[in-house]
């Protein structure tokens, strides 16, 4: 496993290059191919071999990569699985988004997931996503687009005009959040489709006849950065949950071929996971059926397997420590967190938690525990969904962070590489 500084540098590069799930999967695809993984198409017949490294992509926003053991049978050895998700709360552009107000072009947006909305004001916003278009030869094509430069902003209302704003701002997503993209000149009209067509023709391709549709979201152009007198922390957008995607991918790349292991990164977790590419969809189940077609052998394989669901955890906030159970307040840079919930919002049980603790101890890595206050509701992850859909024993873990679901989140700079070391050893466990 690479050292902390190099690991975090590559992590920062990955985060900056991944403003959408589409871009995250594109980046992961490139890194996996560089490491010798072969991309398979779901519509093709497969000829996978022991010792082979493969991956598939669905909807350009979900990805599964796996190593097949060179000298052991899937039925008896099972698969060491890690799961994460590629999506983050954001502002998605509506199909007909253009509105004019006071000579300015505003872009209508829809809130995706449980976003903290206040931090979106007064940020330098850019736009990225997938654009589907009709080419000049009459074929349907798609292209990933990323403007990269700031092209929009959601300005706050001055305190002089809203004297009570510091008593609490109630954000109306319909009226308060449309970003301002341009100032209109005279009778000039600007449509987003024209802007997209020009951007594609200028930066990407030369055969665009018509923009047919798109899936776009705004994002903050500020790059990931270290924070703190001693670089103890780092801040970035989309730490939940691209941080886990990167950690799981790096551990998989560096694992050997002695055991079969797998990384699945699903889209749509932030909105319930119910989609063809989500954890509640059939993507992972269908892959396992193709790897082990015989039903009885597949059931035995799953019984010998385990899933580590990796999704960031709530670190205890120094200014709001009372929001945590007094005995379960994880701190940044104190190790990954095992997440536990009596009502199965997390899939951890004593068996899976004990195994993961044992693996971490072998790497000399400390772990923490998180249980939500008994008088508060608990979030969830892909862990319980995958456990229920596949029937695989599961543990829910994650790096502790602050400002979860904000446009800019905070985590400890020591935690990513330490968790990657544990996952690498887990991938290579003979029995789970």
TrEMBL record:
Entry annotated with the keyword Lyase: no
InterPro entries: Peptidase_M18, Peptidase_M18_dom2
Keywords from the named record: Aminopeptidase, Hydrolase, Metal-binding, Metalloprotease, Protease, Zinc
Any one annotated GO CC term: cytoplasm
One Pfam family from the record: Peptidase_M18
Cofactor(s) it depends on: Zn(2+)
Family from the record: Belongs to the peptidase M18 family.
Protein name: M18 family aminopeptidase
Species of the source: Amphritea opalescens
Classification lineage: Bacteria, Pseudomonadati, Pseudomonadota, Gammaproteobacteria, Oceanospirillales
